[in-house]
Amino acid sequence: MARDSHLETTIGKSLAKTVADSRVLMVGAGGIGCELLKNLVMSGFKNIEVIDLDTIDLSNLNRQFLFQKQHIKKSKAHVAKESALAFNPDVNIVSRHQNIKEHEFSVDWFKSFDLVMNALDNLDARRHVNKMCLAANVPLVESGTAGYLGQVTIIQKDKTECFDCQPKETPKTFPVCTIRSTPSTPIHCIVWAKSYLFGLLFGNTEDDDDEIVSQEDNGDEETAKELAALAQEAQALKAILASAGTEGFAQRVFDKVFHTDIQRLRSMEDMWKSRKPPTPLKYDVIMSSTEDLQMALDATTLESQNLKDQRVWTLRETIEVFSDSLLKLTSRLTTMRETDAEASVQFDKDDSETLDFVTATANLRAHVYGIEEKSRFQVKAMAGNIIPAIATTNAIVAGMMVMLAFKVLNKRIADCKTSYLVYGRHRPQLIVSEPLAKPNPKCYICRNSYIGLKIDTEKSTVQDLVSLLEENSLQDAEIQENGRVIYDPDFDDNAEKTLASLELTDGKFIDVVDEDDRKIIVCLKHVDSADLGESTYAIEGDIEQALEQQTVVRQQLKQAEAAEAAAEHEHQEDPDVIMSDANKKRKLEEVLSTSETTTEDAPLKKTTLGGVAHPPVAGANSGDGVGDGTSTAQAVDLDEIVVVDGRAVDVVILD
Amino acid sequence: MEHKITEDEAALYDRQIRLWGLEAQHRMRNASILVAGMQALSNEVCKNIVLAGVGSITILEHETVTEEDLGAQFFLRQGDIGRNRGEAAAEMARLLNPRVNVIVDKEDIAQKPSSYFSQFNVIRIDNACRETKTGFYAAGVHGFFGYMFCDLTHHEYREEQKETPLDKSKEPETTTSHLSQDYDSLVSTLETSWGYPKPKALKRKVSPLFFAIQILWLFQLGNGGRLPHASSHDDLEALFKLRDERLKSAQVDGGFVDNDLLHTVSAEIAPVCAIVGGFLAQDILKTLSGKDAPLLNYFLYNGIEGTGLVHHVQKST
């Protein structure tokens, strides 16, 4: 019997052929991606394109099983392809070591696939692929995992909710003064070490704060003064940097950052009225203390029980790591700057010298402020936004993605569900599913209509664009690109400019809103005028139909808003009886986030696909529930089924 | 001798240690596992537990590779046809994680002399788990469906709960509780009598798949161990007959297991193996780590409906 016999027996010859003829795009070749590619080549898929911009790291190998030690630093996409081809050489795989957001991956390129499958780990790329699939009207299988939790769903334009229909959590930000002057938690110290001090010492620009430090402070005079003082201190530190490589350099940096600067802060009495003031640290005082030396020795003897990575270092050890990593990083920077004067070292959680430095400085700062110190293992997770990941969750999720892919290719989207993996004690189900949600009428991504426009962006002007829109029923249009106003009836400054001069080039999306407030997203495709023939442009798609659709979308939105307003009104009259659906959902989410048990039919709290995941909540404990009645012995002859081991073997599996 | 987790291992297993902790990793590192039978589902299970970093895994398999095996068994290559299936799979399994000792035993499990069983201390299931406190799992994939069964005799485990203190600046406190669970043997779960409940009520207690797999076992018993062929009319007739007998003896309404459930019984497909094999490996790791509650005691996956139900089937009293 042939290789495909099991598959054909199960899914049928006709679907097996559809699968073999389909073209699928896999975005991401990491944790889920490795499992997914294996499943695809083993499930009859013959044309697969895989894209990933990442390279392989040691910490991937515990789950990304297409990669081995000798592949570290190589392209994930290329190695994944080679490994998967060994499973089934009879598959055509194209691998790309590129960013999916690159220009060449246009709407037309997305259209060349029957199905797109996301195996991504970040919000930004997910939103991009979501938008491209909506514009190309290609079904998207979306997935995500975090630890034991995972989820899989389908996104199809106008039929289901899209990735952006529900708001996503944004990364947490901290006020700049909390980070620079008044930290109170370990994360404040870590952010200071990673995003402030690290950049100051090893970066190339003046003040390159990470986005997680928000600048929106109250703007009062005190704050301004404090910021000015901090800027001055930064300059003084840079002066010390000039002495890198000379005797006592580490000590000078240490005393500057943890003594001089802290003393100045401490002198600002107002700041410490309601807070515990920081205690400056002096390098030689600690290094000559015998008490801490003994603690360090004790810690070394503990090493056999506890990895150094997993325990909090003594103050003396911390300073040693600080000096050591500082010297290594400054010398690395010096070497780099021999060839590139602008070179800088970036923090990377997997670069052990940078992690050492951040751990040591964060903990020294924590020590100064009397904040709990953290192990290097913990700092790594907090500084690197690490989400724990295991092979099994990825394997299950990637398996469920292919089961959905079968249904989509079989034109059975109606049978698809959003599924969650749940974890916890004695649950009645390990997979919880709910029907696909309808698009959110308020969604500003998927409620749009997308139209392709072939045009010579070098020669055509904004006025040409406005005219051609008018020819196509879009009167008095407002044109924007990514929030930037290009043209509206009262603003024609750009009318004579070419599209290219305004960076409206191939692959750009422009928003067009007509006099009736109907919005069409136009995707620009540059074509040389010579290739356009008679006309100066060509429209792909049906504008009339798109406009009709937008009229409907606007009606739906109005209805939704009216319903909400009505519900809000009634809600005020009798809060216990009437709640809008949205409110009901919110209420439930509040309940679910505090309690692990609820009824079986309750809607689930969603796992966020990117960033932090919330545990989806399943039904109540299954507990006992079966097996009343009396026994009538009718059992399979067990002698034939199973053998079990005792001491040498802990678990036996029978396949 | 007990093996301690090294710095190198901690780096390799970083992302999973962050989930289940160093102690769980340590226990896995010192555990050994026997996998009896190497097919597509066990490919998945082996991959997952080898990646997780257990101490050793022994593959017991006497059969040779056929072309059909290449369909869903990713450990196998075209060139492996005719080789021992366990040996071919072990080569690939070792590459996934050189730290795990992968052992192959090519003898037929049925032909093993009793000395082998004493070497591994393997005995029949009815008393093995009870006496030796060894974890036992049975699992299989049949077309769109899959199952696993777990009997740990008596299992002790711990659970950690994080409580967020009112003072948000403080770390959440972790409380550990020590729990235990008694398990029923496979034979006693099969002896359960259901007393003809209404199908709807019964469905809440147990999936029809529970009986479907037993009907398959019965078919294998009567047919020298082979699985039925989906295209064989005689095989299907035999299955339907076995179903009627089995359901009657279990005091279950005859319509509870419909024909479709018995149709694609002899095939293993990759995505279903990935799903069932993922849950199975996860549960094995959970058992080894002594952290959190393992499966109690049946998991039944239905790929057509996309459901994965857990049923606790207990001995009739």
Give a verbal description of the structure.
- Chain A: Keywords: ATP-binding, Membrane, Metal-binding, Nucleotide-binding, Nucleus, Transferase, Transmembrane, Transmembrane helix, Ubl conjugation pathway, Zinc.
- Chain A: It is found in: Nucleus.
- Chain A: Pathway: Protein modification; protein sumoylation.
- Chain A: Heterodimer.
- The complex is a heterodimer of chains A (655) and B (317).
- Helix content of chain A is 41%, strand content 13%.
- Chain A has 20 helices and 18 strands.
- In chain A, strand 12 and strand 13 form a beta hairpin.
- Chain A is globular.
- Chain A starts with a helix and ends with a strand.
- Chain B is built from eleven helices and ten strands.
- Chain B has helices spanning 7-12, 14-29, 40-52, 85-96, 114-119, 125-132, 186-190, 199-205, 208-222, 233-249, 270-289; strands at residues 32-36, 56-60, 101-105, 123-124, 135-142, 145-151, 154-163, 173-182, 298-302, 307-311.
- The longest helix of chain B is centred in the C-terminal third of the chain and has 20 residues, at 270-289.
- Chain B starts with 6 loop residues before the first helix and ends in a 6-residue tail after the last strand.
- Residues 113-127 of chain B have low confidence and may be disordered.
Task: Give a topology summary.
The complex is a heterodimer of chains A (655) and B (317).
Chain A: H1 5-11, H2 13-21, E1 23-27, H3 31-41, E2 47-51, H4 76-87, E3 92-96, H5 107-111, E4 115-118, H6 123-136, E5 140-146, E6 149-155, E7 174-175, H7 176-180, H8 186-202, E8 213-214, H9 221-241, H10 249-267, H11 283-288, H12 290-302, H13 315-339, H14 352-369, H15 376-384, H16 391-409, E9 417-421, E10 429-435, E11 449-455, H17 462-471, E12 478-481, E13 484-487, E14 509-513, E15 519-526, H18 529-532, E16 537-540, H19 543-573, H20 581-594, E17 643-644, E18 651-654
Parallel strand pairs in A: 1-2, 1-4, 2-3, 4-5, 7-8, 11-15
Antiparallel strand pairs in A: 5-6, 6-9, 9-10, 11-16, 12-13, 12-14, 14-15
Chain B: H1 7-12, H2 14-29, E1 32-36, H3 40-52, E2 56-60, H4 85-96, E3 101-105, H5 114-119, E4 123-124, H6 125-132, E5 135-142, E6 145-151, E7 154-163, E8 173-182, H7 186-190, H8 199-205, H9 208-222, H10 233-249, H11 270-289, E9 298-302, E10 307-311
Parallel strand pairs in B: 1-2, 2-3
Antiparallel strand pairs in B: 5-6, 6-9, 7-8, 9-10
Helix pairs in contact in B: 2-11, 3-4, 3-11, 9-10
